[in-house]
Amino acid sequence: MILRPGDVPYADWHAIYRGAVPVLDDACRPAIEESVAAVERIVARGQPVYGINTGFGKLASVRIDLADLATLQRNIVLSHAAGVGEAMPVRVARLMMALKLASLAQGASGVRPATIALIEAMLARGLTPVVPAQGSVGASGDLAPLAHMTAAMLGVGEIVVDGRIVPAIDALAAASLAPLELGPKEGLALLNGTQFSTAYALAGLFEAERLYRAALVTGIVSTEAAKGSDAPFDPRIHALRGHSGQIDTAAALRRLMTGSAIRASHRENDVRVQDPYCLRCQPQVMGAVLDLLRQAATTLIVEANGVSDNPLVFPGADGQGDEALSGGNFHAEPVAFAADMIALALCEIGSLSERRIAMLVDPALSGLPAFLTPKPGLNSGFMIPQVTAAALVGENRQRAYPASVDSIPTSANQEDHVSMAAHGARRLSAMAANVGSVLGIELLAGAQGCDFHAPLASSKVVEAVRERLRQDVPTLADDRHMAPDIAAATALVVRDVLAELAGELPGVVV
């Protein structure tokens, strides 16, 4: 897949997350070479320039001799590789590497073609640095995680190859790659930036989009189980409000329910004038979720195509007026806000789903047997799966607290306001996993509810979903071990099977 730095669309980042191998567009080579030449000219002038011949952070006033510039860059990598905790998932780490590749290749960082080529080669040959996931506050860049990535390029630390963790120096040698020797500014350029936070935020966005689509399907299955109305999906209602996400969501829900004999059976003599909010307000809630995800996607794609290094190199015309300007593009506040929005969206997808589960197991609300079992009392049916869903929603509510409001000063108060984007983005994967399980439980409950309406059938989509579920999970007659059923249903959600069966559904388009 050709990677065009500064112009990489959403679909391409998604493809890299799913395993595509990026190859740099050759058109970026001249800009890379020009920025390297500019750094060489700046070094030759001998004037102090941050990150090139000075110390870092609070030590920026310390001048470094020309003979020590290579040591300076190596030292910053090794000293900053101070992360802790579990390693990044491989596909998120590879996404981080691709983001760094696209940033450096824009020719504003002064990084040599050979250094950029090493990142490209590691991606192509399946060499993924082991990067502890804790240790970044989201400014000055994701220093610790990116230091671990860079250390692996130096032959220090560990690399994952074919699922095995091996010493970095051995992994490079086995792939016929030489360990990197850093030039002026290169260590700082590789460490500075928001690529760790952005990779996790994009991963959270990709998962949230998938769960949004799955929730449209499980929501309609539950609507049919409860003999809910499709009137709330009427396009005239949503046109009057005007939110595009709401309009798109209502149209999808309406299509998913089209042709249902269950709906037709109670269209003329429906005793319930209005459905509960968890059914009736699906377009409003899930539409707002979609709008939020689209807004987060807009921010993250801009960030993914930007340069968040510091200082930034601006070559002069004909070698005159080269500048290395210190700024704050490494501050990940946009990523932190986007991650917080995605967290809110994930929380609400799960919350609305859990309310539908709770409605289905309550005979006073659903009109179905208590806890969806034919023999309540002797059997508990879906009593505790609903409790599990409630527990997962409770966890997500705690995790959804905004990370971006929680700044803490670092580096002897030189870096006195930080974004906490890394924490805000990293929590999204756990939140998404919780939502996946909640939707799996709802799929089971909704399908069980629909079974009580036999021989009436639902729409073609709902019947296809139920048929696919029943290949793995039979209807619940008497109580049995529930955990395997939940795991099987959740797997259908996680593998995107529901969305595939449903056909075209709205999503994030940037």
Question: What would your notes on this structure say?
Answer:
The protein has 510 residues and is mainly alpha-helical. The protein folds into two domains: 2-193, Fumarase C, Chain B, domain 1 (Orthogonal Bundle), CATH 1.10.275.10; 201-307 and 326-502, Fumarase C, Chain A, domain 2 (Up-down Bundle). It has 21 helices and nine strands. Strand 1, helix 1 and strand 2 form a beta-alpha-beta unit. Helix 3 (69-80) crosses helix 6.
**Which architecture of the largest domain per CATH?**
Up-down Bundle
* Helix-residue proportion: 55-70%
How would you sum up the global shape? elongated
CATH topology of the largest domain: Fumarase C, Chain A, domain 2
Indicate the radius of gyration in whole angstroms. Answer: 26 Å
Number of helices: 21
Low-confidence regions = none
Q: What's the overall average pLDDT, rounded?
A: 94
CATH homologous superfamily descriptor of the largest domain: Fumarase/aspartase (Central domain)
Number of strands: 9
Percent of residues in β-strands: 5-15%
Q: Enumerate the strands of the largest sheet in spatial order, edge to edge or round the barrel.
A: 4-6-7
Short synopsis of the structure:
This protein has helices at 10-17, 29-45, 69-80, 90-104, 113-124, 143-153, 168-174, 186-191, 195-225, 235-241, 244-257, 261-265, 277-280, 282-304, 333-361, 363-366, 383-399, 421-451, 460-472, 483-494, 497-502; strands at residues 2-3, 23-24, 84-87, 127-129, 132-134, 158-161, 164-167, 312-314, 323-325. With 510 residues, it is mainly alpha-helical. It folds into two domains: 2-193, Orthogonal Bundle (Fumarase C, Chain B, domain 1), CATH 1.10.275.10; 201-307 and 326-502, Fumarase C, Chain A, domain 2.
